[in-house]
Inverse folding.
């Protein structure tokens, strides 16, 4: 079993490389997919790879459905006219079309399937909470609630935050080929509470206006390698893009800079690596996992021993690794936990969101690495509050050690990490309750009908899912 040299651990605990890069990323105007800030962010990552001694650094462009924010407003008639058009009162959801609609405002509570079945939303402006009740059994994605409103004939959609702080939530609701069907905005819990009260008082008319631009643009993947030139490779990944309403510090600036830091630390022990490691930062995750899908569909995934993807790692220094049932990945991090004497949570369940999913859905071994705290739900993510001041550089140092130690073990030549069949991944996705929600949100990636249980992943397999936004 390989362990990190004490010199590498010491370097990691005194490093400011990741924090300095994170400061540079959050200081960009915004890193929205396909926009100038994402371009500049990609260049910063590429420069860091080269500075840290990684080989063959490159940036690859690919086309995506682009979206640019304009203005949005909500006007409600309740006893008198109430206008919600100040900054941060309404935030258009990426992928929304422009629109100007006036209709009755209807609140569907948590936006569960039963909530839509019980309400007539045709021709209405529909509002749903971002909350999924703890006892419901599965998470209801924003896109599923939006899709239910569209299928019910709604003319507009309001997504109200369930967390305090006057923070309207954002998040993509577009589809694979371009904008969604009806205009959509996020509103804060506080504004949402007020609107719910109006709806409870009686029929309430509202006007929603959204001005935005939808047109094709290009995003970018950034990659470089470290270690021996082997047939197999371990992918260490994150995404550089972020929603334009905040700084994208945690989501996913932290993941991005940890990829660069892991590469830097591995360069110090390159001769000890037994399998090539590819540091790979994707673009356009927030609007449909486009960068990850582009890589998985244009490269030989048969050479990927496993993918280790970091997303949502800025909550604390306690690592949380989701293995998707690939036991060998869990065993590697159990060893890290025991050797370092630090807490590492290991979960075996499916997480069909973020940049590991285009690989895992094909049967490629993969994990998502996060960090957890008592209040580490979505938290500040996808809001104006996702800013650098919420983070602690000491957390990055601890996580860099844990994750680098894990990657070294995943790269061990004699550590076998077997892929799964597509049928096995599909079965686990169904058994863990994700099928209904993914079908409802248009992100179900599997073919209907029988799949041979012995069928293994194929780099040319067609994929249709959009994934998380």
């Amino acid at each position: 079993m390989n362990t990190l040299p004490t010199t590498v651990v010491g370097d990691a605990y005194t490093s400011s490389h990741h924090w300095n890069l994170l400061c540079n990323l959050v200081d960009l105007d915004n890193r929205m997919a396909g926009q100038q800030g994402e371009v500049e962010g990609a260049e910063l990552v590429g420069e860091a790879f080269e500075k840290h001694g990684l080989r063959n650094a490159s940036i690859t462009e690919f086309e995506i459905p682009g979206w640019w924010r304009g203005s949005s407003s909500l006007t409600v008639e309740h006893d008198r006219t109430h206008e919600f058009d100040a900054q941060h009162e309404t935030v258009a959801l990426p992928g929304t079309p422009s629109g100007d609609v006036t209709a009755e405002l209807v609140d569907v509570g948590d936006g569960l399937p039963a909530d839509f079945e019980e309400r007539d939303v045709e021709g209405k402006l529909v509002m749903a909470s971002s909350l999924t009740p703890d006892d419901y059994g599965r998470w209801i994605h924003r896109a599923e609630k939006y899709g239910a409103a569209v299928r019910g004939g709604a003319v507009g959609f309001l997504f109200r935050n369930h967390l305090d702080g006057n923070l309207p939530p954002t998040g993509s609701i577009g589809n694979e080929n371009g904008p969604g069907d009806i205009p959509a905005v996020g509103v804060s819990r506080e504004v949402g509470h007020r609107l719910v009260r109006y709806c409870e008082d009686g029929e309430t008319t509202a006007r929603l206006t959204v001005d935005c631009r939808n047109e094709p643009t290009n995003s970018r993947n950034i990659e470089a390698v470290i270690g021996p030139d082997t047939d197999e490779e371990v992918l260490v990944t994150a995404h550089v893009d972020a929603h334009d309403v905040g700084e994208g510090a945690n989501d996913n600036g932290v993941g991005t800079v940890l990829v660069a830091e892991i590469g830097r630390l591995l360069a110090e022990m390159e001769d000890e690596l037994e399998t090539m490691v590819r540091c790979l930062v994707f673009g356009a995750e927030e609007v449909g996992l486009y960068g990850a899908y582009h890589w998985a569909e244009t490269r030989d995934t048969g050479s990927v021993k496993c993918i280790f993807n970091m997303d949502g790692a800025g909550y604390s220094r306690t690592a949380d690794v989701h293995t998707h049932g690939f036991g060998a990945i869990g065993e590697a991090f159990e060893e890290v936990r025991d050797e370092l004497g630090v807490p590492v949570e290991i979960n075996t369940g499916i997480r069909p969101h973020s940049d590991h999913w285009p690989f895992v859905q094909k049967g490629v071994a993969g994990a998502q690495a996060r960090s957890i705290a008592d209040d580490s739900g979505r938290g500040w993510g996808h809001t104006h509050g996702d800013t650098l001041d919420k983070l602690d550089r000491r957390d990055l140092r601890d996580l860099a050690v844990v994750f680098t130690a894990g990657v070294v073990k995943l790269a061990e030549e004699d550590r076998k990490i077997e892929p799964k069949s597509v049928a096995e991944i599909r079965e686990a996705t169904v058994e863990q309750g994700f099928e209904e929600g993914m079908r409802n949100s248009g992100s179900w990636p599997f073919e209907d009908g029988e799949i041979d249980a012995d069928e293994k992943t194929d780099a040319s397999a067609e994929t249709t899912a959009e994934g998380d936004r």
About this structure: DSSP finds 13 helices and 14 strands in the chain. Confidence is low (pLDDT under 50) at residues 450-469. The radius of gyration is 22 Å. The first strand starts at residue 55 and ends at 78.
